[in-house]
Amino acid sequence: MEKIIGVLHGKERSFPEALIKRINEKNIKGISAAPVSIDKVIQGDPSGYAVIIDRISQDVPFYRAFLKNAAISGTAVINNPFWWSADEKFFNNALATKIGVPVPKTVILPSRELPDDTSAESFSNLAYPLDWNGIFDYVGFPAYMKPFAGGGWKNVYRLNDMNEFFERHAETGQLVMLLQEEIVFEEYYRCYCIGRKHVRIMPYEPRNPHHLRYVANFKPSAKMLKTMEDIVLNINNHLGYDFNTVELAIRDGIPYAIDFCNPAPDADLKSVGQENFDWVVETSANYAIEVAENLKEGRNNLAWGEYIKKSAAGKPLTK
Fold first, then answer.
1. In what helix (H) or strand (E) does residue 83 lie, and over which residues does it extend?
2. How far apart are the first and last CA of the chain?
3. 306-313 and 222-239 helices cross at what angle (nearest 10)?
4. Relative to the CA of 189, which of 72, 153, 223, 291 has its CA 20 to 30 Å away?
5. pLDDT (0 to 100) of residue 210
6. Backbone phi, then psi, for 168, in 5-degree steps?
């Protein structure tokens, strides 16, 4: 029986189309690739796909539910839709502190406005006012404020002092925000990680216009490359992501993990450039084929990270 690798995507075209083409070009017996097609979703029914690479369910709850249903019947979904649903950037940072990965000082803040269907009585466990002086003393200024669940560069603020913080926080509505130490970096890297074993370290300049961010002349030493690779693998093995990017800022020779909850990272040709694009297409194609070949019929074929595995086994996280 043929194993189909499906790609579930939205408006992006260059990466999904190139990935499907590359998998099919390899002409592996019994394996093919195609865009995912959904005409109905019935509880417990197989999806028809051995592997699905998810590029869009973070924006479409219907797709997330479809992927969970597919996983129940043995589809290997990249990335695990159950873990992706549970994860967010503040937890990522908290986990990093337990596994020895340097991260900026970060706190989470309650939303400025009450969530729908709540009242002041819903927050009787929340101190009022919060210990703002303690929060500001811990994080320091300048600082960045951004949504704890992420989403590109939307609703991201750079703040110089507490007055500016309160002005900007008043604009955030029901968003739950992070307040995070600014890392003034000498070098910056965006790192693909595929299959929790393949790493592509890309010089990246987030201060450039979007189309020029991968135009950077940072030249890390072999030792720094190894250090960054180890951090990327450590993070992704604990989170269980098979397709993710990790952003690392180098300050005083120390790589700080800035953002590493990117399970549908930008892979557009115009953004990442030809060399990086070719690498991610080829590596993703090879990994998807590997997953399809090793699929176990009638079993759960999702990847789970070391955090979940250790928690289930009652083992501690170690630095």
1. helix 81-86
2. 45
3. 50
4. 291
5. 80
6. -75, -35
Query: In angstroms, rounded to a whole number, what is the distance separating the alpha carbons of residues 316 and 282?
Result: 36
Instruction: Sketch out the chain's domains with CATH numbers.
Output: 3-80+287-302 (3.40.50.20), 105-181 (3.30.1490.20)
- Report how far residue 6's alpha carbon sits from residue 22's, in angstroms, rounded to the nearest whole number: 13
What are the mean pLDDT values of the chain's consecutive 10-residue runs (319 residues total)? 96 97 98 98 97 97 98 97 95 96 97 95 95 98 92 84 97 96 97 98 91 90 98 98 97 96 94 96 98 93 96 85
> CB neighbours (10 Å) of residue 166?
12
User: Cα–Cα distance between 271 and 274 in angstroms, integer?
Assistant: 9
Residue whose token pair is 């000498």: 186
Confidence at residue 315, expressed as pLDDT on a 0 to 100 scale:
92
Residue 17's CB is within 10 A of a number of other CB atoms, namely 14
One-letter amino acid at 140 equals: G
Q: Where are the beta strands (DSSP E) in 102-197?
A: 106-109, 143-147, 157-159, 177-181, 187-194
What pLDDT is stored for residue 82 in this prediction?
97
Residue 250 has φ and ψ, to the nearest 5°, of: -95, 115
